[in-house]
């Protein structure tokens, strides 16, 4: 990269500043979490996907080209025949032609997965259409012993007092992507941890009952699964379309789960961690709650004393997945 190109890139990146002046998180700082995702995690994912299926020459060459692009090149737009090329162009066409490292991390990360699905033939006609390239890894996790333990642990909650059961299930949802911690509760909450541990060799009968209840609820319409194109957008919820805003507004409470939803809710920006959660979510149409395991740099709503304590040991508490939070704005 020439000095002139680098300077222009810096100027473009400086314009990616969100509300209240907090800069958008980019991936161009070596050693940062965002840099590690683009420089290490994404290339490793490409290799995993490449090895997981007997892709033909066309897919393998396309995967190699994508790897070279994210490592050494600039962001290329979708082809003119891609069904969603205009949608992605509307979702920040100005990032095309930049280094992947100079685009906002939230956008670059989302676009990477769209490109990966495209190059393996997920959207096109042919034998790989609709074949999830991550299916083997998902299935391996679902069939693991940790998940079996979580399902068996449900049996202990069937006869637990309502408050204890609700607390355990809330924590399970919070730590849902950390199977070894799913139903464990904090020290000092009497009885629950022992009750869960005592049934980890029992059959998951309660899990079967819950599954049947959910199946029935979906069949009669009391539980409905919906989707919206914006859920896959590389944009913050602050930019949600009006029809989605109206739907959220009609809800008694919207619960958003996971690190990505958190980043989209408060903005994937370098906020000071004591920035009030209510300030960053005041735009949201209605009451909102988040359940999140920390796996990225973004965080708001903490007390300064909490921040000081977390920073004291020098651990990467924001990105290691060892901490979690629940935040609510009525």
UniProtKB/TrEMBL annotation:
Q: Where is the composition biased (Basic and acidic residues)?
A: 1-15
Is Hydrolase among this UniProt entry's keywords?
A: yes
- Keyword flag Amino-acid biosynthesis: no
Q: Which residues form the Damage-control phosphatase ARMT1-like metal-binding domain?
A: 38-185, 209-308
Name the coiled-coil region(s): none
Task: Give the UniProt keywords, A-Z.
Answer: Hydrolase, Manganese, Metal-binding
Which cofactors does the annotated protein need, by name?
Answer: Mn(2+)
Q: What is this protein called?
A: DUF89 family protein
Q: Which organism is it from?
A: Streptomyces dangxiongensis
